[in-house]
Amino acid sequence: MSELKQKIIADMTTAMKARDKDTVGALRMLKAAIQTEEVSGAKHELTDAEVLRVIEREVKKRRESAEMYSENGRQELADAELAEAEVFARYQPAQLDDDALTALVNSAVAEVAGDGAPNMKMMGQVMKLAKEKAAGQADGKRLSEAVKSALQG
């Protein structure tokens, strides 16, 4: 079992003992998402990197749902979604600041472009490389915007 999954389970047990219903509920959902990923397709134990991808996806889902709820005047539901996203975000690595993100993207662009001039046709290759280098330290949307800006500028 991956260390990250073990930590999530241990934290869930601690939250149960502390009677923290919100945290327990959120961690149960996260554990269920991880288990679903493990049994879909070829059954296998997830690595820490795969667990991080699941966490990233779940955080993104919660934030999008919160945005939709806010737009439709359901702030109490939006707050609940954001609270879950915050619990999940505890297990993500620290997010890169803007300068570090720019440096990472510029490095990826230089690697892909080589001696040629960077252009938008390289977007997919640069995104793939930048996503590997970021390793969960940057949201996909932020990463995409930074790559577009680097390729256009």
UniProtKB/TrEMBL annotation:
Residues 133-145 have a biased composition (Basic and acidic residues). InterPro entries: Asn/Gln_tRNA_amidoTrase-B-like (IPR003789), GatB_Yqey_C_2 (IPR023168), YqeY/Aim41 (IPR019004), YqeY/Aim41_N (IPR042184). GO terms for molecular function: carbon-nitrogen ligase activity, with glutamine as amido-N-donor. It comes from the Bacteria. Pfam families: YqeY. Signal peptide: none annotated. Residues 133-153 are annotated as: Disordered. This is GatB/Yqey domain protein.
